[in-house]
C-alpha cells in the first residue's frame, strides 16, 4: 500500500503573477515547486504575452513537466499555474490545468483549487442547453458559466457565476493582460496576495510560494472577494459575501506546508499548539515522545514541551521515495513501511513511547508502525493524534477517502486501538482543536470531524460524488 493512501490526499495548488519585465515562467515554475505538496499528478503554466495565452501542461511533478527550453518559450507579462491531484475528474492529461478557452470576451485561462458541490447539477443544466465539455473537471463548469455571461464584463460575469456555483473554490484566471483571483464566500481553500516589486504582484495558495520567489506577503484574499492584478495595481471587487467563514481546518493539521501562514495563523505554530493541547488532554506516563515524520513533528514538539517528556527522533525517514518508486510486491509487503521509515533500536528499546501523528484515515500504516516499534523492544506504545477522529467525507476538495474506508466512521476508539495494537489511543478533541484558534474558533470548517457541513453537498451520492458517472473522456494531446 502506498504510504500516502493512509492520509487524506492533498488537492491542488494555484499560483498567479502579474509582472512585466520579470522572467514570468520561471517565477511561476518556482512558485509551483513550492506548492508541489498540494498536488503531484500534473502541473501546468499558462502565460500571456499581452496578445495571446500560451499553455504548457502535462502529467508528473513540476520538474518533470518543465525543462529550461519550455520555460524559455513561455515569455510574457503575466501567468497562472497549477499543480493537481484529482479530487474530481479522472487522473488524466486532459484534466490537467490551467484550462485555456476562447469565449466571446477573448482568451481566458483558469486554475482551480477546491470542489464545487453542485457541479453535476450545473453540468446537466448547461449540457441540456447546448454546452460542450472537454474535461471531466468541475472547473470547466465555471468556464462555461463565464462564457454564458459574456455580454457582461469579466468581473460581472464572475459575480453572476459566484451566485450559481456552490462549494469550495479558490481560482486564478488569466486574460491577455491581467490576472484575476477569486475566493469562495466561505474561504474554504487558502489564497494569499504578495508583491514582488513596483506594480508586480503575485497570488498563491500558500505564503510559502511567495517566500520562495522573494515576494512580500500583502494579505489573504478575503472570502467572496475578486482581486484584479494589472497595470493599475491590485483592485478589489466584492464578489459574493457571506457572513460565515469556513476555512478548512485540515490545512493546519496536515495539508499546508508548516512554513506557510494561512488566514492569520502560522501553520507550524498551530501544529505545535495542537500538540500542547493534546498533552493537556491526555496525561500519559512515558519515557519518550516520538514523532511520525514529517507531519507529526511540530505536534510532537508541542506535546513533549507541555508534558515535560523528552522528544526523540526514533524513526528515520527515507526522503527519496518518489511517485515513481516501485512498490514492494505481495511477498515483500512487510517491507512497505520499513522502506519509508526505519526505527532506531537504541532510542526505542525498553521505552514507554508516546507516538505522535497528525491524523488517522484507515489505520493500516499506524498499525505497521506500532508493530515495528514493538519489534524494536518498545515496552509501551501510546498513539496520540493531533486531530479528532475523521468520521465523514469531505466534499470541498480533499480526498479523505470514502466514508466506508474511514476507520473512525466504523469502529469505536477502543476497537481502533485494538486494530492498531497500541496500548492507548488518544485523539485531540474537537473543542481542543478549535481552542487553538482562540477568538477565531468559529471561522473553520470541521465537517469531516463533526458532520456539520457548511454547504450542503447537493451532488453527493453514497458518500461521494463523481463527474465521471455517465461521462467518458477522450485522450488529449498537449
Ligand atoms: Fe477541510 Fe474536513 Fe472541511 Fe474538508 S470537511 S474542508 S477536509 S475540514
Walk me through the structure.
- The chain is of the alpha+beta class and 478 residues long.
- It folds into two domains: 4-246 and 470-475, Aminohydrolase, N-terminal nucleophile (Ntn) domain (Glutamine Phosphoribosylpyrophosphate, subunit 1, domain 1); 266-318 and 332-439, Rossmann fold.
- 28% of the residues lie in helices and 23% in strands.
- It has 17 helices and 23 strands.
- It has helices at residues 24-34, 62-65, 68-72, 119-128, 139-148, 154-164, 207-212, 250-255, 267-281, 297-307, 335-340, 345-348, 364-375, 407-410, 413-420, 430-435, 447-450, and strands spanning 12-18, 42-48, 53-59, 78-84, 99-103, 106-113, 170-174, 179-183, 192-195, 201-204, 216-220, 225-230, 233-238, 247-248, 261-262, 265-266, 288-291, 315-317, 341-343, 352-357, 380-385, 424-427, 444-445.
- It has a seven-stranded antiparallel sheet with strand order 3-2-4-1-10-9-11. A six-stranded antiparallel sheet has the order 5-6-7-8-12-13, covered by helices on one side.
- Mean pLDDT is 89; it is low at 461-478.
- It binds iron/sulfur cluster.
- Iron/sulfur cluster is lined by residues 188, 248-250, 394, 396, 398, 400, 445-448.
Amino acid at each position: 500500500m502506498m504510504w500516502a493512501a493512509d492520509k487524506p490526499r492533498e488537492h491542488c495548488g494555484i499560483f498567479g503573477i502579474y509582472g512585466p519585465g520579470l522572467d514570468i515562467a520561471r517565477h511561476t515554475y518556482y512558485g509551483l515547486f513550492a506548492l508541489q505538496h498540494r498536488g503531484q499528478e500534473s502541473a501546468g503554466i499558462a502565460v500571456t504575452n499581452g496578445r495571446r495565452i500560451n499553455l504548457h501542461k502535462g502529467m508528473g511533478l513540476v520538474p518533470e513537466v518543465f525543462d529550461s527550453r519550455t520555460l524559455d518559450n513561455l515569455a510574457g507579462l503575466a501567468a497562472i499555474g497549477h499543480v493537481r491531484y484529482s479530487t474530481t475528474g479522472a487522473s488524466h492529461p486532459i484534466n490537467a490545468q490551467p484550462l485555456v478557452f476562447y469565449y466571446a470576451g477573448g482568451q481566458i485561462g483558469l486554475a482551480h483549487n477546491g470542489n464545487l458541490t453542485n457541479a453535476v447539477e450545473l453540468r446537466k443544466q448547461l449540457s441540456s442547453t447546448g454546452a460542450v465539455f472537454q474535461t471531466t473537471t468541475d472547473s470547466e463548469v465555471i468556464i462555461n458559466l463565464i462564457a454564458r455571461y459574456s455580454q457582461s464584463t469579466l468581473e460581472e460575469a464572475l459575480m453572476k457565476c459566484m451566485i450559481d456555483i456552490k462549494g469550495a473554490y479558490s481560482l486564478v484566471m488569466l486574460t491577455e493582460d491581467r490576472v484575476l483571483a477569486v475566493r469562495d464566500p466561505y474561504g474554504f481553500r487558502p489564497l494569499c496576495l504578495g508583491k514582488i516589486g513596483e506594480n508586480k504582484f503575485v497570488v498563491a495558495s500558500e505564503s510559502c510560494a511567495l517566500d520562495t520567489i522573494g515576494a512580500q506577503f500583502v494579505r489573504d484574499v478575503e472570502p467572496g472577494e475578486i482581486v484584479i492584478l494589472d497595470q493599475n495595481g491590485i483592485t478589489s471587487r466584492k464578489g459574493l459575501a457571506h457572513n460565515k467563514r469556513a476555512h478548512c481546518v485540515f490545512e493546519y493539521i496536515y495539508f499546508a506546508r508548516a512554513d506557510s501562514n494561512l488566514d492569520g495563523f502560522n501553520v507550524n505554530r498551530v501544529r505545535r499548539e495542537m500538540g500542547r493541547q493534546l498533552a493537556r488532554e491526555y496525561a500519559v506516563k512515558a519515557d519518550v515522545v516520538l514523532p511520525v515524520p514529517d507531519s507529526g513533528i511540530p505536534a510532537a514538539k508541542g506535546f513533549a514541551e507541555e508534558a515535560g517528556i523528552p522528544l526523540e527522533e526514533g524513526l528515520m525517514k527515507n526522503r527519496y521515495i518518489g511517485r515513481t518508486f516501485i512498490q514492494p510486491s505481495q511477498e515483500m509487503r512487510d517491507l512497505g513501511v520499513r522502506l519509508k521509515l526505519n526505527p532506531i533500536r537504541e532510542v526505542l528499546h525498553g521505552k514507554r513511547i508516546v507516538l505522535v501523528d497528525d491524523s488517522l484515515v484507515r489505520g493500516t500504516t499506524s498499525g505497521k508502525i506500532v508493530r515495528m516499534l514493538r519489534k524494536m523492544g518498545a515496552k509501551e506504545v501510546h498513539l496520540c493524534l493531533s486531530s479528532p477522529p475523521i468520521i465523514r467525507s469531505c466534499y470541498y476538495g480533499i480526498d479523505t477517502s470514502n466514508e466506508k474506508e474511514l476507520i473512525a466512521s466504523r469502529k469505536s476508539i477502543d476497537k481502533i486501538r485494538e486494530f492498531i495494537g497500541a496500548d492507548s489511543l488518544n485523539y485531540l478533541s474537537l473543542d481542543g482543536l478549535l481552542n487553538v484558534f482562540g477568538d477565531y474558533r468559529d471561522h473553520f470548517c470541521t465537517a469531516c470531524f463533526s458532520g456539520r457541513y457548511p454547504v450542503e453537498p447537493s451532488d453527493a451520492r453514497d458518500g461521494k460524488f463523481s463527474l465521471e458517472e455517465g461521462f467518458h473522456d477522450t485522450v488529449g494531446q498537449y
